[in-house]
Amino acid sequence: MNSINSSSFSGISPHCLRICLAGLWLLASWSPARLVAQEAIPIEGAILKTIEATTLTSQVAGMVRELNASEGDSITVGENIGRINDEAVRLELEQLRIQVEVAKKKQANSINLRLAEKGNQVAETEYQRALGANARVPSTYPINEIDRLRLVADQAKLEVERAQYELEIAGFEVVLAQGNYRKSYELYSRHQLTAPATGVVVSVEKRPGEWVEPGTDLLRIVRIDRLRVEGFITAEHAQSNLVGRTANISQMAPNKSESVEGKVVFVSPDVNPVNSQVRVFIEIDNTAGKWRPGVRVNATIGAE
Questions:
Q1: Angle at 56 between CA 54 and CA 61, to 5 degrees
Q2: 87: burial class by Cβ within 10 Å (0-12, 13-18, 19+)?
Q3: pLDDT category, 21, cuts 50, 70, 90?
């Protein structure tokens, strides 16, 4: 091929020359990689799956007293759906609650402290009065009486300190009683069966009256308000900018035209060495409950 030089463009106007050069630049920059990034991408083997599936297990040993959930029920996280036999724990919890109230009453009772303070005030006044009388008229009170009054005043001061100490101990007794109550309540809570997640009950493994051990499966909950489409794309389509792209999901059945828009949330960094495919995840909103896990669908990632 002859090399291109300036003489090759002799006789062409500068304006036409600029257009030709621009066309050549666009042709060179429009690579197959850019075409792959911009085109719609079909997903092979697309199937709907659940994102979250949770199993409620027993935390304690005992007999199932209540289990108010059946297959197909919709439940919300934290909802009380039953209990393991908790009669003994209930009785202990009630006793500890009363102990907490008693401890609080003792802490709030300042009668002994106020009585000790009054006694201290009287004893100190009587002692000071005797000292003042002897200062004015010596030997009004004999020395042994002065010693007795001083002892009484000192005892009254100690009574005040003892009353204050008892109130401090009462405060610690409140803390101790509350700690025992919380410990018992934690055990009581483990006897209560609450939904660990929001979703639909798909299986119930135990019924009221059956004995369970810690770790025994009671029921299984599946979240269906959001579903995941799993499928595969070719390695050449697996670009880093696919995450966040919208995708169209439609039914494969010929008599159904239902479709929904989803979003790419994951593109696997691994390429299958056998077929050069890459796994992708797309999430869709299924609040209306029109889509069921396990169904094969047609899925296409939209053009950029």
A1: 155
A2: exposed
A3: low
Which pLDDT belongs to residue 38?
A: 59
* Lookup result for tokens 């799993």: 230
Token digits for 191?
Answer: 């006897």
pLDDT exceeds 50 at position 34: no
Residue with tokens 């030997």: 139
Give the count of beta carbons closer than 10 Å to the beta carbon of residue 48. 21
Q: Is 206 left (phi over 0), alpha (psi -120 to 50) or beta?
A: beta
Beta-carbon count within 10 A of 169 CB = 12
- 10 Å CB burial of residue 215 (0-12, 13-18, 19+) is exposed
Q: Are the C-beta atoms of 298 and 252 separated by less than 8 Å? A: yes
Grade residue 31 by pLDDT with cuts at 50, 70 and 90.
very low
**Contact call for residues 293 and 227 (beta carbons, < 8 A):** yes
Q: Which residues are within 8 A (CB) of 4 and not within 5 positions of it... i.e. 6 or more apart?
A: none
Residue 171 has phi, psi (to 5 degrees) of -65, -40
What are the angstrom distances between the C-alpha of 287 and each of 76, 78, 273, 301?
A: 14, 20, 38, 22
Residue 50 DSSP SS3:
strand
Residue 230 has pLDDT above 90, yes or no: yes
Q: Helix (H) and strand (E) counts for the chain? A: 5, 14
Q: Tell me which residue has tokens 């850019």.
A: 34
Taken as a whole, the chain contains a residue count of 304
Alpha helix positions (H), the chain:
14-29, 32-38, 87-108, 111-136, 143-191
Single-letter residue type at 93: L
3-state secondary structure of 298: strand
**CA 156, CA 204: separation in Å to the nearest integer?**
70
Q: With a cut of 50, say whether residue 4 has pLDDT above it.
A: no
